[in-house]
């Protein structure tokens, strides 16, 4: 097996974290190959994201911000109402004057499409229908050899697992790691903006906190909007959510049942949803990993940190991870095995420090969503974190902090 070279990097997962990292590494002259299990990246990621200033700052440094701003909707506050449609508060999620960027409402599908196009232009090689199977061999001084379920193999100087919550690459670093279900799912779908009649003196995005549940309306472009709710339910006996996530009839029926408790603000939107957009995600949690690095295998994005799909945190962390790791690798190309190990462990330490604090915010949102999904929920407004430390974070400067 050849002596490892960091000029050749393999990335498993053509999602936001993997593609962002690939684009950055190509910009500094490295050869990058991305492996994606799906047939192509035209599969619809139907969930809606809010990219906050920390994520957008990373996107700008990665060189992909213009593509995202071209398709997203900028805003600075979420309007929070009670069930009587009376204003409770405004939650700041971005501010150009305070944090350098407004927030951006954008679907995950739009992000992935934009990054895929940019990766192609940058010369990133993407192999679809390559389902990762295992790390065959790995050490700190030799190339990483990997295999796929189609019996093909590949060898790279570094392997990055960016393959999501159910990461297969994670098994190399934490073979016994398991996620746990929090008792609620997030339901979401899109509809024509014309179906939503906003209360007086309010605008999108709009959050309603009420004993009947927590409802969130967000803009999608200029013609559409999304609606999202939490729903308490038992997990499938098999533990496999695939069938339920694909069952559009079931998702619509649950939304219909929940909308029946509301007036026309919610019910008019729910009765005219785009069936393709109907989505369900189980809210999962997982203990922090002890390590994101082993030999020449590294984890980023949801593969490295499992956070519930609430609070607008995961996508922004993925962009931070990509920029932080890309910046680190740019300095380690000629560092040798010992220098690589030291550099990656410093990177890991900084990202884990960041994650520990962000995870506390995620817990508060997860608790709120779980309560909102319960039929006996009490009124709850979204928590108001101190946004400065969260939104002003600079992933490159953070690497300068010594352990």
From TrEMBL:
Keywords: FAD, Flavoprotein, Monooxygenase, Oxidoreductase. The keyword Cytoplasm does not apply. The keyword rRNA processing does not apply. Pfam families: FAD_binding_3 (PF01494). Residues 7-342 form the FAD-binding domain. One of its GO terms (molecular function) is FAD binding. Residues 368-389 are annotated as: Disordered. It comes from the Eukaryota. Belongs to the paxM FAD-dependent monooxygenase family. This is FAD/NAD(P)-binding domain-containing protein. It comes from Dissoconium aciculare CBS 342.82.
């Amino acid at each position: 097996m050849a002596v490892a070279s960091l000029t050749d990097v393999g990335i498993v997962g053509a999602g936001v974290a993997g593609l962002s990292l690939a684009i950055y590494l190509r910009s500094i002259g490295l050869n990058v190959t991305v492996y994606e299990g799906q047939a192509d990246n035209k599969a619809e990621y139907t969930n809606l994201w809010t990219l906050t200033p920390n994520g957008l700052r990373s996107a700008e440094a990665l060189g992909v911000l213009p593509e995202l701003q071209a398709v997203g909707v900028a805003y600075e506050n979420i309007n929070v109402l009670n069930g009587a449609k009376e204003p409770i508060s405004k939650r700041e999620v971005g501010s150009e004057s305070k944090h350098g960027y407004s927030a951006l409402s954008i679907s995950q599908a739009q992000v992935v499409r934009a990054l895929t196009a940019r990766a192609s232009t940058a010369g990133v090689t993407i192999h679809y229908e390559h389902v990762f199977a295992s790390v065959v061999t790995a050490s700190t001084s030799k190339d990483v050899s990997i295999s796929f379920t189609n019996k093909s193999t590949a060898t790279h100087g570094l392997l990055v697992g960016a393959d999501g919550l159910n990461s297969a690459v994670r098994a190399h670093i934490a073979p016994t790691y398991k996620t746990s279900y929090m008792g609620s799912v997030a339901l979401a779908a899109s509809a024509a903006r014309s179906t939503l009649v906003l209360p007086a003196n309010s605008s999108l995005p709009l959050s309603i906190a009420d004993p009947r549940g927590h409802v969130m309306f967000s803009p999608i472009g200029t013609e559409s909007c999304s609606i999202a709710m939490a729903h308490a339910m038992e997990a499938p006996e098999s533990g496999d959510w695939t069938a339920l996530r694909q069952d559009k009839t079931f998702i619509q029926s649950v939304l219909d049942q929940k909308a029946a408790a509301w007036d026309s603000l919610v019910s008019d939107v729910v009765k005219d949803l785009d069936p393709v957009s109907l989505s369900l995600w189980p809210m999962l949690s997982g203990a922090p990993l002890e390590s994101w690095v082993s030999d020449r295998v590294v984890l980023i994005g949801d593969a490295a940190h499992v956070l519930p799909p609430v609070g607008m945190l995961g996508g922004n962390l993925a962009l931070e991870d990509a920029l932080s790791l890309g910046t680190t690798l740019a300095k380690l190309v000629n560092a040798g095995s010992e220098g690589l190990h030291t550099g990656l462990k410093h990177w890991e330490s900084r990202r884990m420090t960041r994650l520990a604090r962000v995870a506390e915010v995620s817990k508060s949102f997860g608790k709120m969503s779980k309560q909102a999904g319960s039929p006996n929920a009490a009124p709850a407004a979204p928590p108001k974190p101190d946004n400065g430390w969260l939104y002003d974070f600079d992933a490159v400067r953070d690497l300068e902090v010594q352990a």
